[in-house]
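agent> fetching stored inputs for the calcium ion docking request
agent> found them:
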Amino acid sequence: MHKVIFDTDPGVDDAMALLFLHNHPEIDLIGITSVFGNASVETTTRNALYLKQQWHIPAPVARGLGETLNPSRPHVDWPTGIHGHDGLGNIGAPDVVDLPCHPLPAHRFIIETVRANPGEVTLVAVGRMTNLALALRDDPDIAVLVKEVVIMGGAFDMRGNITPAAEANIHGDPEAADAVMTAPWPVVVVGLDVTEETVMTRARLAAIVATGGERAKLLSDISQFYIDFYEQHVEDGMVIHDSCACVYVVAPHLFTLRSGAIRVVCGGIADGQTIQKADDHLFPPSAWDNLPSQNVCVGIDADAVLDLISETLALNPAA
Ligand SMILES: [Ca+2]
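agent> prediction call returned; pasting tokens
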């Protein structure tokens, strides 16, 4: 079993990833930590509680941060054209969900949980890296106690998706992302290089709903607005960024990795760009020296990943 804390900004593709983690038999989802990104932290926390309630997820929700690690960064508008005004595809989620948050803030929840389970916790982070960076700042020693950090974010051998240089999760808090990538914990980055190859078609989603029951139906309802947005990018369906990172936890053999130190550009026109110095390439002294080698996904078996996601989302305990 993989003990997972899911750090997330739900978010439509976050919702799919959450259901994957909840359904997968080899994953023990032990916590959900919210962060801002696809919407304000008030909205993403509400959404995490709403999905917990609707899908009967036992894991607690700990509320995270709503501001960048560097507080002087300007606010950027929420991507309501992609995730809707409610962050869940405008399905009309209730303003208030009658469930409490965990008493600890997200970064303290991460620290306490990792310390209670040394060497066992995988952090799957699919929003901005703010909570993880604050956990490291508060308690740097947790880095060696975490089993693995799997990140959805970044664009290495290709353009970004929020600027020509940067992917949205990293661009949303570059200083936090640089701290996470350069810390002495094992990081695997699942970025646009592989996520943009995984497209869930309308037909595939409909087939999931046909066997997955009410849980899958809610997921499908949430996803329709996002699918409409993606019409300008893909022929049919939705790119399922966040679920790819969750698949990595249980099926790493479906990905090709490249090892090397990673830095994140902080400021200037390439703000939020992710750059890896591959271990097998020599350079004169640079800002990538004396840092841990982390892994970047540079290849994916997209069909197999989509099949695994489909099978997992279609599991229906009520049937
Ligand atoms: Ca996300």
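agent> quick read of the result: The first helix runs from residue 12 to 23.
agent> awaiting further instructions
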